[in-house]
Amino acid sequence: MKLTELTAGLEKVFTSQHMAKRTLAEYRRGWKRLGEFLTSAYGDYEFDYERGMAYFQNQFGLQPDEQPGQLTYKQKHVFRIINTLQEYRLTGSVSHKHFLHRKPPEFTEKFASFIAEYEAAISSEGLSTSTVRDLRQRCRYFLLYLQQVGIEDLSKIDLSVLDSYMKTLAPYCLRTVKGYLVSLRHLIRYLQTQKIIGADLTKNLHVKEISRNSLIPSGWSNDEIQQLLGSIDRNNPQGKRDYAMILLACVMSKRAGDIAGLKFSNLDLRAKRIRFVQHKTQKPLDLPIPKEVSRPLADYILNGRPRISESDAVFIKHRVPFDGFSSGADLSRMLDRRRQKAGIEKEGMHRGFHSLRHAAATGYLEMETPVPVIAGILGHADMNTTSIYLKRDLRKLAECVLDPEELADDET
Prior knowledge:
The protein has 412 residues and is mostly helical. The chain contains 18 helices and three strands. It has a three-stranded antiparallel sheet with strand order 1-2-3, with no helix packed on it. Helix 1 (3-16) runs antiparallel to helix 2 (21-41), helix 1 (3-16) packs across helix 4 and helix 6 (129-148) packs across helix 8. The chain is globular and about 70 Å long.
C-alpha cells in the first residue's frame, strides 16, 4: 500500500479526534522523511513493516529491539510513526491508546446516544465497579474502531466486522485479548436483547482458554526491593509519600487501587490498624500495620503531606489542586519512574504496581507463613487464588516433585 494512501487515512483519523496541531505536524514531518527514504531506497512509495524497519536502521544504525527501554525521544517517535502506519495498513484503524491519554475520543451523535444507554444498562446490573469500568471502556474502544472504518449502523455488525476488530488486538497478550473478548460478548448480547442485531454472534467469539494456574507470577527479588527503596530520597515530601505507598504494597500486599483510594478514616495509627472495603472485591479488610510501614506512613502524614490540601485521601498529588490519585494507574507510573531512577531493569517481567503485591506474597511464603494467613493478608476470599502465588516459591515447588523411584516402589 502506498505511503500517501496510508498518511491520508491517518490524517483523517487524527483530525477527527482533534489531535493537537503540533503533534500532527510532527507526524507529517516524519511521514515526509520516510517518503524520501522510500523513493531513494526503493524507487516508489510502497510501505510495509520491513521497509519501515529499514528506515529506522538507516536513521539510527540499529533496530528498536537492540536497545529495549533505552530509545531516545526521537527514536521512540520514529518507531511510533512506523507502528502507526503498519497498524492502519493492516486494520484500517488506529488504536484507542493514541487518543485516550489526553482526552476521550469523540463519537457521532448516534454512537454517543448508544454509549449512554449501554452504560446506564450495565450500571444497573449489580456488577462490580471495576467490571462496569472495563465494559464501558471497551465498548468505547470498539465503537471508536467502527467509526474509523466507516461503520455507522450497529445493525451492520457481523462476523467479518468482529474478525477485523480482533486483528487490532494482535499486539496484546492472550490474557488481555481474553478480557476484551469477554467485554465484546457482553456488548453483542446487549445488542441482541435490544434487537439491534439478530444473529447470535457470541458463539463464534473464542480465544484459547487460559488457566490462571498455568501462569507463574513475575515479581521483584528482595535485592531489587531494597535497591528500589534505597534509591528514594526520604528527605523530601514526594519521597516520603512514594516510600510509604511502595511499603504498603511490598510489605502489606495492598492493591494499587486500594492504596490510591485510602482515606484517613481507614487508618488508626494509634492502634496501628488499617480498615477499608477492598475496591476490587467489595469485601472489608481489617489488618494490623507493622512498624516497618506505620513509621514511614506517619512520617509522610506529619512531615510530608501538603497541609493545605482539603482532601480526605491519605496520599495526594503534590501539585495544585493537591487532590488524590484517580486510580492505581497513577501509582504504576510513579513506580516506573522510581524503578528507572534506581537502575532496575524489568524487561520481560511484570513491573506495574501490582507486581509489588506479588513480591509481598512471595516474601510471606519464604517465611513459611500458612497459606490461609497469606490469603487473609492479601484479601482473597478464595484460597485457590492465593495458590497462584505458590508457584513463585520455586524451592518449595521442587520439594513437591515426586521421586520416580519412590513412585515405582508404591506401584509395586
